[in-house]
Write a structure and sequence with these properties.
Elements (H helix, E strand, L loop, with lengths): L4 E6 L5 E7 L9 H12 L7 H4 L4 E5 L1 E2 L2 E2 L4 E6 L2 H5 L16 H7 L7 H7 L4 H16 L5 E8 L2 E2 L7 H10 L8 H16 L6 E7 L16 H10 L4 E6 L10 H4 L3 E3 L6 E3 L7 E2 L2 E2 L4 E7 L10 E4 L4 E4 L10 H24 L4 H9 L15
Helix pairs in contact: 1-6, 1-11, 6-11, 9-11
This protein binds ligand EPS.
Ligand EPS binds next to α6.
Length: about 400
């Protein structure tokens, strides 16, 4: 059963986006600056559009925190939309030309909103992810108390692959964090990718990419093989697939496993005679076996499709006139792959934190940390070391 749940609400140009997070234990010191910094990370990145120049996202804590500490009750965070002020008195043209790849067409019919597709896109917009990142930031603060850390970096931009072999996760993280592409690419590759994004923009086109996420260190024995719904990798996959525009995910060696014989596909188990710890020399599993964390870093890649709002629009049908048309064009981003990485970190953090609470209790931080620090089996696994 999930301990931590969150629910967002809000529309892209409405008053704001809010999130209610339940299951955060009491006694967690909340660092507002950290939450706002996470929101800023999501707003950054090469290829974003005009909207990000309007917004400076900040989370207002509305409930669940008293004198900077959680009190065990649901936490509500609000990210107010600055653009609301510009939109509230404006006459907004109705939309009847659904964008291929967006929720527009099916959503309009499903909810009876065919008179104006704007009522679909306002909620399906990726603006909603601001609230997910606010929730994820709170959860990252929780995870830090257990030494758990996670980051993402873009390993492919519009078909250009970034080779990070030979780099440690620490090096990748440092470089990606400084890069507008959230990539550990060298300056030449970075310049090539930026030029390609610029060219796409000029062409009225959009670009996707592949994001790698690494949770490290992460304790072993999170998740369970007992029921389908308890598997950690399945929960991560569901969470990541719920992020707007994500079309696939693979863990560890992923689809490459199909071409490997069994003797190269698994991570053999060794015992350190000195410390008594089990350890692996490889991490083809991506850090889970039987739906449980192994103590190796959880590593997965997810693909983001190109954003469906194209300035040079695709073929569609005008649903009010039942005739061929070009899709609606709107201010949008050329690429938001770097931002999607931060969103994926956030939804992953929730799953991992939830699994920690499942194993160690869920009421107050002192109790949970006491249980965690006293777990004798954690010492049987080498998990604190940052390896790939
Ligand atoms: C989005 C369209 C753009 C993006 C938006 C997602 O917004 P607007 O329609 O206001 O120009 O900038 O992303 C965000 C606002 C955000 O905070 O990430 C869309 O249609 O999905």
């Amino acid at each position: 059963m999930a301990q931590i749940t969150y629910q967002t609400a809000g529309e892209s140009h409405g008053k704001g986006i809010i999130v209610i997070i339940t299951g955060i234990p009491s006694g967690l010191a909340v660092d507002q600056g950290f939450i706002d910094n996470e929101l800023a990370r999501r707003q950054s990145g090469y290829g974003r559009g005009g909207r990000m120049k309007i917004e400076t996202d900040r989370a207002e804590i509305l409930t669940g925190v008293c004198d900077g500490m959680t009190i065990g009750s649901p936490v509500t965070l609000a990210v107010w939309n600055k653009d609301y002020e510009n939109w509230k008195s404006k006459t907004v043209e109705k939309i009847h030309k659904p964008r291929p790849g967006h929720a527009d067409l099916v959503g309009a019919y499903k909810y009876g909103l065919t008179d104006d597709i704007r009522n679909v896109l306002e909620r399906s917009s990726a603006r909603e992810t601001a609230a997910r990142v606010a929730a994820g930031a709170l959860v990252k603060i929780f995870l830090a108390r257990f030494g758990v850390s996670l980051f993402s970096h873009v390993v492919e931009w519009g078909g250009i692959k970034i080779d990070t072999s030979g780099m440690t996760p620490g090096e990748i993280r440092e470089r990606a964090e400084e890069s507008e592409l959230r990539s550990a690419a060298g300056p030449d590759t970075e310049a090539k990718i930026k030029a390609m994004i610029d060219a796409y923009k000029k062409d009225g086109d959009t670009m996707g990419g592949v994001i790698e996420t690494i949770v490290s260190p992460v304790p072993p024995m999170l998740g369970s093989y007992q029921t389908a719904g308890a598997k950690l990798d399945a929960k991560i996959a569901a969470a990541v697939m719920s992020v707007q525009a994500i079309k696939g995910i693979e863990f560890g060696a992923g689809f490459g496993l199909a071409g490997l014989p069994g003797n190269q596909a698994h991570d053999e188990i060794y015992l350190d005679d000195k410390t008594g710890e089990y350890y692996r020399k490889t991490n083809r599993s991506g850090g889970t076996e039987g739906g449980m964390s192994t103590g190796s870093p959880i590593v997965f890649r997810s693909v983001m499709k190109p954003i469906p709002t194209l300035m040079k629009p695709l073929d569609t049908v005008d649903i009010s006139e039942s005739r061929a048309a070009k899709a609606v064009t709107e201010r949008s981003d050329v690429a938001a792959v770097a931002a999607a990485g931060v969103v994926i970190e956030s939804v992953t953090a929730v799953v991992v934190a939830d699994a920690i609470l499942e194993r160690y209790g869920c009421d107050n931080m002192d109790m949970i940390l006491r249980n965690f620090n006293a777990d004798p089996d954690l010492k049987r696994f080498r998990w604190k070391e940052r390896t790939r």
